[in-house]
Amino acid sequence: MLFGRSRELQRIDRLVADLVDGVPGHLVIRGExxxxxxxxxxxxxxxxxxxVQVLRGYGVQSEAELPFAGLYQLLRPLLDRVDDLPxxxxxxxxxxxxxxxxxxxxxxxxxxxxxxxxxxxxEERPLLCLIDDAxxxxxxxxxTLRFVAGRLVAERIGLxxxxxxxxxxxxxxxxxxxxxxxxxxxxxxxxxxxxxxxxGDVIRxxxxxxxxxxxxxxxxxxxxxxxQRAGIEPLAGPLPLPERLQAIxxxxxxxxxxxxxxxxxxxxxxxxxxxxxVLRAARRCGLDPASLQPxxxxxxxxxxxxxxGRRIVFRHPLLRAAVYNAAxxxxxxxxxxxxxxxxxxxxxxxxxxxxxxxTVTGPDERIAAELDRCAQxxxxxxxxxxxxxxxxxxxxxxxxxxxxxxxxxxxxQAANLAGQPGRAERLVVQSDRLSTDPLxxxxxxxxxxxxxxxxxxxxxxxxxxxxxxxxxxAADPELAALLLVDAVRNAWFANDRGWSREAIRELHTxxxxxxxxxxxxxxVVLELSDRLEVLTGAExxxxxxxxxxxxxxxxxxxxxxxxxxxxxxxxxxxALVAAETAVRVCRTTGQLGLLVLSLQILATVELxxxxxxxxxxxxxEGLELSTVLGQQNRTCHFEALLAWLEAVTGDAExxxxxxxxxxxxxxxxxxxxxxxxxxxxxxLCDLGRGRPEEALELxxxxxxxxxxxxxxxxxxTPDLIEAAAxxxxxxxxxxxxxxxxxxxxxxxxxxxxxVELRCRALLADDDTTTGKxxxxxxxxxxxxxxxGQPRPFDRARTQLLYGEWLRRxxxxxxxxxxxxxxxxxxxxxxxMPWSDRAASELRAAGVTGRxxxxxxxxxxxxxxxxxxxxxxxxxxxxxxxxxLFLSPRTVAYHLQKVYRKLSIRSRIELTHLPLxxxxxx
Length: 921
Known about the structure:
By secondary structure, the protein is mostly helical. It is globular, with a radius of gyration of 33 Å. The model is unreliable at about 915-920 (pLDDT under 50).
């Protein structure tokens, strides 16, 4: 019977009832040791009856270093369904669980596989997952369950977590139930039932001193003498509080037979508490399995069925700690040695390695090597945090100073991958103190540079990467190439061409063998750098002869750089193909880290080519993923893109908020592309609202060196020229027009030439020239559209400017044609400030009562736009879910909403809707 938890029980009952009604949910129960979290989970397990499937899992402190151990335990009843998953998901799960050898496992792909398994299971009955001691879940399992919880939309799935109080927030923004001590009436009732011989004064004292903690109320009175319980003997001094309950448990343990305490120690040391493992180890000690019975009779432990077989359950975690701590060090070492001896080195190498590590107190190379292999497996299974811990433990068991330094360096690299920069830096310092090896120190500097690149000074990053680069290149060209590629990337983000040229010159001197895995990255970096040199008016260095042969296929990382290079030459079509290919490859192969970078370049290209709804959908997805993965430099880029899109729609408040967020990070960390796009967004926002003077007061115009970036600068120029023309500051932008003209001419792209002609019209000195230039610009826009390069926003802005000019020339009848076309396009794009300007000009030209043409996609959310896009390409629900990290049921839910919004009934109708037609055609 539960005392004093009626509100908590109602909350849980409501979650389960909603689940039966088809409403998903998740809840965190948080409380101190002994507050009743596990009892509430037991209640949840039974309150749904036969209407609900229940999966149970629990965090085990010793298994917090075993990647995906918690998830495996939870999913084991569903693993017979893995073969039915899409192949990337099935492979990811099998790799995560160590069923098959695998490379690095993407956690979010594992999360998608888990979500799909859950989604398939709820076809039968709603599913409730109960996870106790969630604070001890291994990091990959915890991340996976966070991923699942964040995507519960239409699935009949419930997640209920029990977490100790004072732990780091385990589930950001999750609904929580906090368990405090019981109220006086409930505490008194509990004591009256469990300890009816307590007097009133003793009851009040126990409640006061325990803060009415249910476990303490249950256990502490049992440690009092009969005279104290009856109030005859005074209670001198403080009562034992919950944190001191271990002493009480140890008193109970001393009453047990020695053989029983020995088998309990094995159980406490083997934290999975697998009964079969404990009994095998007991037999090696000459212990009779019946030795466990006295502990069961005393209510200290029980056995229960679990998916991995029967397990021993201690009455409370503190009891287990008391068992372990009561043993002598030699007894603990012997227990771990016995347990390691019965674990199969082929089937359970990681648990065996950690048990072996607990048996030594000094260097032991054999065990260090086992832990090293354990770390390598953890890296392959997507557990860099676990790998780092294993590498570090292996290092301190290593006798050789040089090998210890190497393992500490590996621990630092893994910690950095796991998003633990402080720990990584500490490990780097420890490694450097033990070694003077220049190559090891260079690898350590690369870790420090990576941390600095993400959160520190770009100058520090540059210095770290190029220190002693000549000596490193002579000794290890592959390592030097990695350092130099990172240095070029840092220089590109910092917009420092001097740094870039310094690193490029070093790359030109490297001699990498034909089969080098680093060659493709080096080639793309060299190509992009040459294009940036051309873009800024400098002479390219050219590719070394050994790099002339292009690779047959490119990785997503290379495709991203290729897309950026294509943008530099206004080859937007090629950039779009490269970016879309990168995203497609990442989605189908589950390369989620690179998916964020690929979405970044794809959303940027879509923004620059006028595909605003798709740009918004991809930027929104990228913002979510980058936030989850902690990629701050990507996050601020997506914020800047969304700010630019809000400038187009006219939501000035949101534009400024997003731009401020992006610039706040990017300006401090010198992320130059984000600084350029964020400031451009603010300029466009002012221009759209008819405030060109304010646009020219922004840093984008005033602080050229810090505001511009080669890939963004020429794209910003038309807006700055328009602002200058409207404020009679033409002389201030003539040099920008010259650079724009050179770029447009060199590119040979009609879309670029059309915008350049519009800018020339804005700055022309006489009306005859102005009119001809506007006509030529529109003809070039039409030619670009016929050639497959429609730029609807750019063309509509040219039409608007031409119509405004015609009306000022007192030619209203001629002005109406381009103004009406511009207004219709702006309506289709949702560009309200520009639509309002066009409507105002039309009224001035004598047109009234114009009907707005609302775009079909305007009513859809970014997620729905993504679903529509893939559905129109012929993907089924499962395929769409695999690409967007949604369950098939959620995809079906989104499609039903789309059908209602668009007044259609099937995929066939969806396919035939003119959603992709460039507006204004």
